[in-house]
């Protein structure tokens, strides 16, 4: 199966997205991750735009080895000189030059006749060719251009040395069928286009960027330009992760592959989010928080029985550990019982029935139902677990210039036993001191803290999960003092573990 080339323009068109500017170090980090992801081409920037852009493109050219590194340039000698200076150190450099070809752009923006635009395009491709073998030529606003005019300009720039022809939907105006026919018409009228790569670059103004890219691929495009998380000018560009996973998931009809290591997708998306601070919407395909989450009872039941009922790809295939069952007002009994099992509870049928009714009432009132809420509901129904260990007293000492220490005393079988420890903060120190006393040999699997009431006097609820021999013991602790809440949660988990081991 043939691979379609993935041209990533996160660092160029993506950066044109408001709020997505990146500094040189962030761009290098992102470029290295794109290399691990396996993209074929990195468009590293628009070298003439600023000194910073030039330095970033140049640094990326020096820091990645497998992908081609491209810089954008207008059809102007000074832009091409600058682009070449920036990419010339790359193992595989590319100059990407463009000029607009639509009547609107030529008349109002460039103030040039079509003949002048052809002349500039040809001259600048020849000019760039003196520097670099690999030249991409883009006809900006191609989809609002006359296809026969495009065929003429493409034939001439290919003869002048262009090795890739890009036919962008700059303003996200076309539709899949129209784009398919448009590309077919251009191919029929550009004899030399068959010798080189045909690229597409779609914007998402009508939400059709990915669909249009896929239609173009079916019409013979061999390179797709896209960005991580779909960032880019205005409504963004075609999202890399969506294109790649569509190709991957629908190999049966699309009959193409990519060189992308899909397991790196999530990491790449999160790196970009961390760098830019721009979150992806929760329902965003592939990389959104909810892309592999199931909230409603019928779906949760289906997925618990057989994941493929509601999952067309696995979360693991994009680098996520697992899917997510979100408990809320739409959830049903199957998911509720499954969560109880995960939390280590085994209830009788009647207890489950009562707990489920209470859970539904709570879910109607509360946006998020946490594990702690479920435990609060069921803990009163399960067999009472004796408090083998109880907190007698604790003292912690911490600050930003000293090592945190904790001294904890527990009551055990009517005796007080104490120990001390240092740690990474007062809570870590306290947990270590407790472990010295109880010696469970369990590992701390998870810890979280949230407020359970509102206002200045909010109570903090700590959840501690201890793991031993594949069993999870979840402890809860509530206090207005977060250290105390955490210590109580740890002791609660220890008591559950001890109870289990003794029975
Ligand atoms: C579709 C796209 O995404 S195109 C890429 C868009 N990205 C960017 O513009 C980001 C970086 N841009 C910049 O930093 C600046 O716009 C620069 C450095 C490129 C140019 O800045 P300035 O010289 O101040 O020009 P300004 O941006 O105001 O106007 C653009 C000029 O380029 C011309 N131009 C636009 N596209 C092209 C082209 N492909 N080839 C030749 N000239 C072009 C315009 O006609 C205009 O020319 P004029 O100054 O003679 O009127
Ligand atoms: C420069 C070109 C490829 C572009 O970004 C566009 O047309 O959208
Ligand atoms: Mg663009």
From TrEMBL:
Residues 4-266 form the Pyruvate carboxyltransferase domain. Residues 390-503 are annotated as: Regulatory domain. One of its GO terms (biological process) is L-leucine biosynthetic process. The keyword Protease does not apply. One of its GO terms (molecular function) is manganese ion binding. Gene3D superfamilies: 1.10.238.260, 3.30.160.270, Aldolase class I. It catalyses: 3-methyl-2-oxobutanoate + acetyl-CoA + H2O = (2S)-2-isopropylmalate + CoA + H(+). Pfam families: HCS_D2 (PF22617), HMGL-like (PF00682), LeuA_dimer (PF08502). Keywords: Amino-acid biosynthesis, Branched-chain amino acid biosynthesis, Cytoplasm, Leucine biosynthesis, Manganese, Metal-binding, Transferase. Homodimer. HAMAP family: LeuA_type1. This is 2-isopropylmalate synthase. It comes from Anaeromicrobium sediminis. The gene is leuA.
